[in-house]
Write a structure and sequence with these properties.
The chain has 2 domains: 28-300, Hypothetical protein af1432 (Orthogonal Bundle), CATH 1.10.3210.10; 304-376, no CATH class. Helices cover 60% and strands 1% of the residues. The protein has helices at 4-13, 43-52, 55-58, 78-96, 100-109, 118-132, 139-154, 161-168, 186-198, 211-234, 245-251, 255-270, 280-296, 304-326, 333-338, 344-349, 352-361, 365-376; strands at 178-179, 276-277.
């Protein structure tokens, strides 16, 4: 390109208006060398593109958000959720004068490590991991693993550390009234990542290294809290009238109202500050709404009989694939579909049990069911 230098400078100049506490793309950290002189995109824009072109991103479309096996195409999937989070985080970032590209990259990648059947599948895989290989399983840590170590045939995508950290620390289940970023080195990030790989409980202590990571963390709850209610109402699981009046009076009673209320409150209480916060009124209402959702939506989304059946399926597939690896059953799909596309380095440097967990956790709901049907009939 004749004007490549001028174009690149113009792209970088677009970040000059950002506030001092924003994360600039020129400060992006990579664990491996990342040079392409002919690329006009900044580091975080490149990360967005790497993520949306990843195979694991495509599989969002058939991964459970809350409700599974529902014959209704209007009910959210994990793909819907990440789009809501992305839009909320970019709106907040633009209003606060921080980096939209970084928020978008974190948002779009934050749930890539989610298992089939959402948080139920995550819980079951965590139990399997703890029993069989003495490590934990958490979807946010698996998201980092997928993007850093599994994508691109086991080579990873070499995303910036700021994006990986935001994904690792995104847990929207842990609501706070104030989110204050904490600076980290690459060594500190890797230490946290490795500790959380061993013990999933450590994820509850994580704090993002950037303000943008904090924005995505609060945007995660903004992206699910009202939409999950909307889905439950559409399916006739709850009535909108069941939401306590005190919550409705503060946040509203539709997804759009709830999202708008929280987003505006976050912007109002975070403007020109180096942290993200909410007013006490909105924070308390949000906490109450989350409790309402847990009792009336999440705990009722799957009955005990269905959970036990799903647990049986996960355990069966885990033992089936592990046996195939131990006995070199090359006709098994863990060889024919998964390992044939993975690098020799990945195969040599991971235990068989870890490979099985990677394979299962990356499945869509539909593929998981087809695999169970296929091997349970043998």
């Amino acid at each position: 390109m004749k004007y490549i230098k001028d174009i690149k400078e113009n792209m970088i100049r677009n970040e000059e208006h950002l506030y001092s506490y924003a994360s600039k793309s020129k400060d992006a950290i990579h664990l491996s060398e990342n040079i392409n002189d002919n690329d006009i995109r900044n580091a975080y824009q490149k990360d967005v593109d790497k993520i949306i072109h990843a195979l694991s991103y495509t599989r969002y479309i058939d991964k459970t958000q809350v409700y599974t096996d529902i014959p209704n195409d209007n009910i959210s999937t994990r793909m819907t959720h990440v789009q809501f989070v992305s839009r909320a985080s970019r709106t907040i970032a633009r209003a606060l004068g921080v980096n939209e590209d970084l928020c978008e990259a974190i948002s779009l990648g934050h749930d890539i490590g989610h298992t089939p059947y959402g948080h139920v599948g995550e819980k079951i895989l965590n139990n399997i991991c703890r029993k069989n290989i003495k490590i934990g399983f958490a979807h946010n840590i698996q998201s980092v693993r997928v993007l850093m170590e599994l994508e691109k045939n086991g080579e990873g995508l070499n995303l910036s550390l700021q994006v990986l950290d935001g994904i690792m620390c995104h847990n929207g289940e842990l609501i706070q009234s104030k989110y204050m970023p904490r600076e980290k080195s690459a060594e500190e990030f890797l230490k946290e990542y490795n500790e959380c790989t061993i013990n999933a409980e450590n994820t509850k202590k994580l704090i993002p290294m950037t303000l943008e990571g904090c924005i995505v963390r609060v945007s995660d709850v903004i992206g699910y809290i009202g939409k999950d209610i909307e889905d439950a109402v559409r399916l006739g699981r709850i009535s909108i009238k069941e939401i306590p009046e005190k919550i409705v009076n503060t946040l509203g009673n539709s997804n759009s109202e709830i999202m708008n209320t929280i987003i505006l409150d976050v912007i109002e209480n975070s403007f020109k500050k180096g942290y993200i916060s909410m007013s006490s009124k909105v924070y308390e209402a949000l906490e109450d709404l989350k409790k309402f959702n847990y009792v009336n939506i999440y705990e009722r989304a799957m009955n005990n009989r269905t959970y036990k059946l799903l647990e049986t399926k996960f355990k069966f597939l885990y033992s089936t694939y592990l046996k195939a690896l131990e006995n070199n059953e090359y006709y098994n799909d863990i060889f024919g579909i998964y390992l044939k596309n993975m690098s020799e380095n990945y195969i040599l440097n991971n235990k068989k049990e870890r490979i099985v967990i990677d394979f299962i956790s990356g499945m869509t709901d539909n593929f998981f069911e087809k695999q169970y049907i296929k091997y349970s009939k043998i």
